[in-house]
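S1.2 Input.
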Amino acid sequence: MKESRFWKIIDTARKQAGEDIHSRETSIIEQLTRLSERELTEFHYLYFLHELRAYSWELWGALFIINQGDTDDDNFQHFISWLISEGKATYQKIIENPELLANREELDEIELTPMTHIAEDVYKEKTGDDIPAHCCHYPEEPMGEAWDETDVIGKYPKLEKKYWS
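S1.3 Output.
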């Protein structure tokens, strides 16, 4: 599967869901049921690669500020799912500069149930087998330079101005 097809599936889901971001998963599942076993495996792999690219201390720090310090592993996974579901352009911009999140009108719902499993579930339903798992293991720590709560304050001035009270 070409990356452009991966993002087309994500964009279609976002458009079909409209304001209801939680129905993006349903739309993705509907689209995945039409894919071949190979395409499902490739979608799964691409989804994981985009999750892994977003799995950074820099993004986690931005979410820490947005959530006013209330952030854990689960919140971060949900945030990454939301970010991918926003589409390629938003995903790439935020990966490159998390402070751009301060320009968003609403960030009330920036967490979705992690969607890593979607292609796995559809594959299992279609074939009765598990998706080939030669990939897809998270590192022990996010990429980049680790921080603690005192380090992250001052790192995201736009986000702090908007969200940190």
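S1.4 Remarks. The chain is about 60% helix and 0% strand.
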